[in-house]
């Protein structure tokens, strides 16, 4: 074949005309022949065909549907169907190329509820146009990943949870297997294999169970334990109060709403885990309810797709094929669509690229990333040249096996940007309407992690580098000063000291994240309230850096001291003289002709009975204020076993303390 014909072949290939079988045969025939006529004919044909391709190297077909993306370059509407979205969509483009605008328009046009997984606070602004949109910053989220979806057996969910946790935190098979065994052991302690019912354990109980797992450090399994515990401690610590519940928000109800989950500010592992476990929860719920083949029911939007669908984890053979990759193929049968965006397609899993029916190529500056997508769209050389010149808001879209089509995407105008203050004001009612159940322990769990004790399992303690110096903001310092001076003040009241509740909450979170305070919940007659308890680190900082005098009357943790003060104040309001820590009692009450002491019992502990024995020798009546009914019944049984004079012992639950229950003067 002569040089002229080789050049002609290269020219024809670059302009995409060799896709025409007749042109390809003519060029090959000219190359195999010495006929000048045939060679001139092939050159004219290639040139004529190329002229059309230089003008517009794409077919002018359209895709039908009702979800509008924009117009093709001839100016006709380009539409997707809901059926297309059940098979997922992948949009790739550099920052500022138009991915977010594309997602805005899809949200506007799709007719089913959507969930956004938002890592950069890009989607809260939609609330300025849609008052029904629920925006949930992670600090407002309550989720118990160990509570199975309705209809899903705990044993199955234990496997799913372990896979999601393992994938998101890069655990290998040995550590994942250890985690699975621990979850099953925890479920068994909560009797979930006998009868699936509330309460369910939380990640905090899982951490406590693994911490209590003593094993020889000569065994390889100890490495698995330490690895899992390291990941779990970090997750519980950085997630604040997200996992501090037995039952989180009703996700099945949230599936009926448009929701933006804001994960900005969380660590990468926690973000990944939250997204993956929410994907899995929805899929397992649909599967358990057998909600198959009913069309598009719900749509996920996820930018920065490589965070979940990472090619590096997919190729990590020791951990096996990620479960999240398999979910992408299975979800479509249950009407769950997935819209994924990213800037670096080469870092996405082969699975997500293979399981997305619609692909959208937006401007990509990096040649390697561009070629990755152009190859998957099977673009000709001329089509590649065209696509490399795409501007902001322009894309090449391919649906299924159809030919790719350039599209000018619709613009999307937002009336205003939503600030933190705007968000808090507009979403406050939404947030307060969401309910959850606090953590609750079972006797079976207590017997495993702390035999002979029944104290409430504390939230994870912050482990900090002793060399690290604190550098708190002025708002955090102001908040800490109030905690020291008013230890029993509720969070809502504390927030009123700031220009907005959001700023107050941000200052509180700064203290929690730096290990200066820990949150505690107290249940009162009027409902729940949150208190803050100083850590040793917080006490030292307050004394040395803020020069505050840190001291308190009462013993024990902040909840114990709160009830000491509440009970003392109630007796004083009734007209009696009451004192803290007098005669070694939590509260001593002098009633003139008689004396009464009150012991505040946080748990069913032998030491409470020892105090009762000592008080019976000196005082007429002993009241025991109990945290809950379980503590009350346990202490009653202990008193009966000791054969103490129970006629002089009065039991009261914390929530029963009010003026009507107290003797009057």
What does this structure look like?
The protein has 665 residues and is of the alpha/beta class. Helix content is 43%, strand content 14%. It is built from 25 helices and 18 strands. A hairpin with a 4-residue loop joins β1 and β2 (77-80).
Which features would summarize this protein structure in a list?
665 residues, alpha/beta, 5-stranded mixed sheet, 25 helices, 18 strands, 43% helix
Topology:
Elements: H1 3-14, H2 21-32, H3 36-55, E1 67-72, E2 77-80, H4 82-86, E3 89-92, H5 99-109, E4 114-118, E5 134-137, H6 154-168, H7 173-189, H8 203-211, H9 221-238, H10 251-254, E6 259-262, H11 268-288, E7 298-302, H12 311-314, H13 323-331, E8 336-342, H14 350-354, E9 358-361, H15 367-377, H16 381-388, E10 394-399, E11 405-409, H17 420-433, H18 443-449, H19 474-485, H20 491-495, H21 501-513, E12 517-524, E13 527-534, H22 536-544, H23 558-574, E14 577-580, E15 587-590, E16 595-601, H24 606-616, E17 621-626, H25 629-642, E18 649-653
Parallel strand pairs: 3-8, 3-9, 4-6, 4-7, 5-6, 7-8, 16-17, 17-18
Antiparallel strand pairs: 1-2, 1-11, 9-10, 10-11, 12-13, 14-15, 15-16
Helix pairs in contact: 1-2, 1-3, 2-3, 6-7, 6-11, 7-9, 8-9, 11-13, 19-21
């Amino acid at each position: 074949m002569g040089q002229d014909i080789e050049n002609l072949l290269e020219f024809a290939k670059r302009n995409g005309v060799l896709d025409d079988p007749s042109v390809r045969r003519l060029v090959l025939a000219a190359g195999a022949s010495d006929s000048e006529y045939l060679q001139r004919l092939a050159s004219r044909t290639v040139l004529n065909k190329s002229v059309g391709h230089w003008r517009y190297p794409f077919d002018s077909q359209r895709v039908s549907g009702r979800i509008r993306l924009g117009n093709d370059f001839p100016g006709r509407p380009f539409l997707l169907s809901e059926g297309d979205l059940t098979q997922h969509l992948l949009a790739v483009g550099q920052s500022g190329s138009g991915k977010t605008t594309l997602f805005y328009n899809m949200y506007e046009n799709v007719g089913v509820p959507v969930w956004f997984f938002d890592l950069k606070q890009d989607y809260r602004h939609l609330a300025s146009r849609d008052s029904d949109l629920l925006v949930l910053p992670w600090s407002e989220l309550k989720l118990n990943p160990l509570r199975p979806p309705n209809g899903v057996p705990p044993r199955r969910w234990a496997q799913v949870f372990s896979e999601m946790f393992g994938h998101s935190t890069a655990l290998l098979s040995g550590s994942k297997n250890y985690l699975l065994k621990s979850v099953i052991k925890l479920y068994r302690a909560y009797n979930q294999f006998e009868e699936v019912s509330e309460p369910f354990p939380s990640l905090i109980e899982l951490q406590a169970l693994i911490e209590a797992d003593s094993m020889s450090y000569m065994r390889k399994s100890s490495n698995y334990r330490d690895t899992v515990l390291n990941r779990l401690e970090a997750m519980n610590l950085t997630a604040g109060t997200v996992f501090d519940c037995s039952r989180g928000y009703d996700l099945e109800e949230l599936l009926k709403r448009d929701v933006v989950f804001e994960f900005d500010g969380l660590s990468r592992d926690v973000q990944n885990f939250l997204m993956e476990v929410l994907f899995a929860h929805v899929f397992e719920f649909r599967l358990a309810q057998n909600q198959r083949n009913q069309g598009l029911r719900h749509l996920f939007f996820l930018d920065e797709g490589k965070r979940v669908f990472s090619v590096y984890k997919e190729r990590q053979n020791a951990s096996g094929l990620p479960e999240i990759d398999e979910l992408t193929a299975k979800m479509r049968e249950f009407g769950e669509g997935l819209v994924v965006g990213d800037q670096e397609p080469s870092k996405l899993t082969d699975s997500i690229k293979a399981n997305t029916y619609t692909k959208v190529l937006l401007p990509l500056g990096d040649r390697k990333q561009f070629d990755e997508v152009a190859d998957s769209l099977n673009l000709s050389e001329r089509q590649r040249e065209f696509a490399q010149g795409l501007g902001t808001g322009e894309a090449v879209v391919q649906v299924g096996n159809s030919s790719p089509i350039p599209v000018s995407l619709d613009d999307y105008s937002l009336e205003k940007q939503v600030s933190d203050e705007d968000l808090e004001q507009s979403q406050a009612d939404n947030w307060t309407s969401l309910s959850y159940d606090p953590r609750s322990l079972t006797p079976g769990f207590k017997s495993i992690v702390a035999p002979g004790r029944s104290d409430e399992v504390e939230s994870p303690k912050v482990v900090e580098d002793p060399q690290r110096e604190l550098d708190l903001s002025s708002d955090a310092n102001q908040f800490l000063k109030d905690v020291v001076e008013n230890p029993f003040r509720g969070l809502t009241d504390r927030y009123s000291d700031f220009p907005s509740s959001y700023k107050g909450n941000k200052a509180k979170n700064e203290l929690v994240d730096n290990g200066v305070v820990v949150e505690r919940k107290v249940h009162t007659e009027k409902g729940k309230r949150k208190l803050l308890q100083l850590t040793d680190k917080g006490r030292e900082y307050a004394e040395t850096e803020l020069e505050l005098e840190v001291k308190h009357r009462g013993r024990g943790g902040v909840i114990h001291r709160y009830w000491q003060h509440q009970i003392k104040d109630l007796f004083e309001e009734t007209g009696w003289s009451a004192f803290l820590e007098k005669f070694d009692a939590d509260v001593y009450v002098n009633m003139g002709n008689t004396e009464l002491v009150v012991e505040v019992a946080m748990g069913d502990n032998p030491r409470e009975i020892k105090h009762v024995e000592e008080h019976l020798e000196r005082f007429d009546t002993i009241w025991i204020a109990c945290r809950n009914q379980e503590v009350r019944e346990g202490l009653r049984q202990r008193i009966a076993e000791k054969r103490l004079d129970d006629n002089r012992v009065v039991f009261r639950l914390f929530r029963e303390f009010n003026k009507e229950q107290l003797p009057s003067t």
